Amino acid sequence: GQIVSRDELAAINEKVETIGGAAAKGRKPKPATAQTLLLGITKASLKSESFIAAASFQETTKVLTEASLSGRLDKLYGLKENVILGHLIPAGTAFKPHLELKVAHLAEPPVPKIFAEEVRQVEDVEARADAAVKEALGID
């Protein structure tokens, strides 16, 4: 047996149900069964899906060594590992669906006022540039 979370157990059983009872080596697959297991605080934290969160609690060198040797990847889904790394926590306004929201503005953004003097200066510069180009090309 293995120690898995309820979510993992549900995902595994869902896969078995989608197979629809197709035979695997002569036997139909059966959904996995489970028993609830109450772990102490130390063991529960070390069983965390995030090795960064587990390493922050206890047995840091052991957790990090095992994670590096097995090539584990931490997806940084939890609050604790994001706080440790100094990232935005996935909650509130930093919750991923909130970050991907596109806001539609109901009103046009204010257009900056351009003063007549600035417009005249820009037009003068453009006219001088055009004249210089024409002179350089020998165009009247």
From TrEMBL:
Name of this chain's protein: RNA polymerase Rpb1 domain-containing protein
